[in-house]
Structure formats: structure tokens, C-alpha cells
Amino acid sequence: MAAILASASVSTMKTLWETKIQKIQENHNNQRRKPRSRLVAADVWEERHTLARLRDKVKMQDGRLLLCLEQEDWKALPGCLVRLSQVQEWHIHRTGLQKIPSFISLFSNLLVLDLSRNGVTEIPKEIGSLTQLRELLLSYNKVRFVPEELGDCESLERLELAINRELDRLPDKLSQLRRLVRVDLSMNAFGTIPPCLLRMPALEWLDMGGNRLRSLPQDIYRMQKLRALWLQRNLLETVPESVGRMSRLDTLVLSGNRLSDIPPVMEKMDNLRFVNFRDNPLTLEMAAAVDEEEREMFGREFMLTYIQEARKRALDEAN
């Protein structure tokens, strides 16, 4: 009987100790959970605070929802921004933004993506999901590479990539952008006009000033709808005669190149209203050929007079 009682006593003690140890372990675990819970709560509060800040920057204009951030510190955009996926335009300037988030693909109704004057280094391939996007403005950034997926943005009408400095090529797939009307690639490192531009059927305005162009493609005339072509401050030495086949061209800027002559075929470009040949080492001296204003601008009247003088000079030399 005593043995049975002793055994029961040991069993009871063991149970008590096990219960006590379990409680100690639970208390220890609870103490460990509390800091984590506080961290989670802090994260939730921070996300709500950030989302509230972003919501304050959303406004309605012309029937569209715009997100406008200007001169604030947003080097990265938070994931909670997807809660505002109904926004149709992003206007984010001078924030130090370094990256376009991959969740941009969730903004399926986005019409304008304007991230000018930031520090963006690349365009994510997810950009191709934005089939409603009409304007992509990334001037004054650090973009070096354009993904071919941009060619899937079938509604794109305006593309601005000026002053990214080291950008020197565009993917061929961009020729699929059949609604693209305006392209600004000025102040970059292009050595040639990207072939995809020659195959864009709607292109009307192209600025490639301040690049490293040494020549123009012979088939430049394929840009049949082009109205304005800006090629100032390049390294061009000649203009191909095929430019005369660009029947809709009304503005041609060639100032600050290395041109020694003006192609005679340009005399027949009846739609050409504005042309600038200023700061080129042209062969003929035209001191008295045009009035002071035209001499300053080296415009259309200067061009016509130059061609006529060149033709007359060639005839005199032949005789």
C-alpha cells in the first residue's frame, strides 16, 4: 500500500513539474511574440500612414484620377500603392525615384506615366501589360535600356526619353507601335536613327538633336507622315537626297552639324516651311544673299538662295 502511495506521489509531482515547465515555456513564447506583434502593428500603422499620404496626392482633373508627387522623397514606391490601382495618370517629378515597380502591371487603366526628372535606371518588362497607356515620359532620368515589351503598349501615342545620356538603341519590336505620333530621343548617345522608327506608320514628330548621328539612312523617306524632324547638334556631314521624298515634312532643323552643302532636291520640298542650317560649315559665302533676319536663322529663304547660288556657281565653273 505504501508503495502504491509513493508511486502516486511521484506521478503527481511529475505532472506538477511538467505543468510548471509548460507554463514557463508558454510565458517565454508569449514574451517572444509580443515584440513581433508590436513590429507587425508598427508595419500596419506605417503602411496605413503611407497610403494616407498617397491618397492625399490623388486628385480629379478632366474626369481622370491623377497621382501627383513633386519634390518629395520617394526613391522607391511602396507596395500599398496597388490599393490605388484605379489611378489613370502618374505624375511623379523630382522625387529621386530609382525604379519603376513591377506591380505597375496592375494599373491596367493607366493612360499617362510621367516620371520625368528622377533617377530611373530601367523600364521593367511588365510595362507591356499597359495596353491602354498613351504617354510614357521618362526624360531627365538614367535609362540605358528599353525592353522590347514596350512594343506591346499598343495605345502609345507619345514617347519621351530625352536626356538619359547613355541610351543608344531601341528594340525593333517598337515598330509595332502603330499609334505612336511623337518621339523625343534628344540628348542621348544614338549613333544612328533606330530602324524601328522608320517603320512606325503614324510618326509625325521626331527629335534626335544632341546625339552622335554621323549620317542619315537612305530610306529615311519611309517616315511618310513625318512633319517635324529635329537633328540639331549632331555630327552630320551630308543630307541624303531621299529626304526630298518626305512630302509632309514642314520643319527640318539641322543647325550645329558639319554640313558643307544643301541638297538641291530640297528646293522642291513645297511643304517645308521652317528649316535651320545655322552653325554649319557651308561652302558658299552668302553675305549679301539674304536679309539680316534670314541670315541669322539660315531658314527657308537662305536655303533656296544657297541652292540657286550653288547651281549658278557650278554652271559658271562648267563654262
Describe the structure.
Helix content is 26%, strand content 13%. The termini are far apart. With 319 residues, the chain is an alpha/beta fold. Mean pLDDT is 88; it is low at 1-8.
What structural keywords apply?
319 residues, alpha/beta, eleven-stranded mixed β-sheet, 11 strands
Strand portion: 5-15%
Please identify the structural class as seen in this structure: alpha/beta
Q: Helicity, in percent?
A: 25-40%
Please list the strands of the largest sheet in the order they lie side by side.
1-2-3-4-5-6-7-8-9-10-11
Mean pLDDT: 88
Poorly predicted segments: 1-8
Question: What would you say about this model in short?
Answer:
The chain is an alpha/beta fold and 319 residues long.
